[in-house]
Every structure is written in C-alpha cells, then in structure tokens.
Amino acid sequence: MVIFITNKDAYHEMKGTIATLQHTVWCAAEVLTLEQTNELYKAGVELSVLDYEVDVAKEAELEEALETIRVHHPDEEIMLGRNKKA
To answer: Which of 38, 16, 37 is closest to 27 using CA atoms?
Structure first.
C-alpha cells in the first residue's frame, strides 16, 4: 500500500500508520514542513514529495498525481486517508 498525503489533515490522520514504516509515502508539495520531511527521512520512512500541490477537489490534478505514483508503484493500492482508496 502507498499512502498519498494531499493536505495537513491527511498527514495528521495517517501519522501513526506512516510511523509503522510499512508503507511508502508520497506527499503533495507544501503539506509538510522541511522539519517534518527531515524527521520522516531520519525515521526511515520511504518518502517522495511531489514538486506541485494537489487539490483533491480538482479531478485532473488528483489524477495526474495518482498516475505519477502508479508509474512507480504499479501493483500497489493507493490510500488517500485512513478509509479512502484512490
């Protein structure tokens, strides 16, 4: 499973799951602070940060980001939140 974080609320919702180090994490730009990003890297989280923001209300933006993730993780489920599959 890949966790895709699109906003600060989603990050806080999934923080415990991320801390298990069992899932790859992708994050939209401007969600995490530099300090948070560095903490995740130091903790051993496999983290990728997009260089653009993603508004989930804009389907084209969300689909572009999901396609990028699918290229790197073609056979994995993508989660947008605790109970929200992409």
So the answer is: 37
Q: What is the pLDDT of residue 81?
A: 72
Contact 39, 16 (CB under 8 A): no
CA distance 46 to 59: 26
pLDDT mean over 29-39: 96
Ordered by where they begin, the domains of the chain are 2-85 (3.40.50)
Do the Cβ atoms of 31 and 11 come closer than 8 Å? yes
